[in-house]
Amino acid sequence: MLDFLEPKIDVLAPLSKKYECEFSLAIFIMNRNESTPWIHLDKRYNEFIKKFIKKVDVEFDIDLYCPPDDE
């Protein structure tokens, strides 16, 4: 994802001023026997987010869904 977004910061910045900008991620846990998922952002992501937020008005949304076993 970073390889795609990093070169596009200057393109996204003016668009984020005109439109609402949000990156959404949804994780669905379909097998309750699996371990709890985790999300790890390494140093490259952390540095990118610091630079990105300064130029682009954006929100990051991460949702975790665990449907009931009977679905």
Tags for this model:
71 residues; alpha+beta; two-stranded parallel sheet; 2 strands; elongated
Approximately how much helix is present in the residues? 25-40%
Number of strands: 2
SSE string: HHEHE
- State the shape: elongated
**Approximate strand percentage:** 15-25%
Uncertain residue ranges:
none
Task: Describe this protein's structure.
The protein is an alpha+beta fold and 71 residues long. It has helices at 2-5, 9-18, 43-55; strands at residues 22-28, 59-65. It is built from three helices and two strands. A two-stranded parallel ribbon has the order 1-2.
Task: Produce a short descriptive summary.
It contains 3 helices and 2 strands, in the order H-H-E-H-E. It is of the alpha+beta class and 71 residues long.
Which secondary structure elements does this structure contain, and how are they paired or packed?
Layout: H1 2-5, H2 9-18, E1 22-28, H3 43-55, E2 59-65
Parallel strand pairs: 1-2
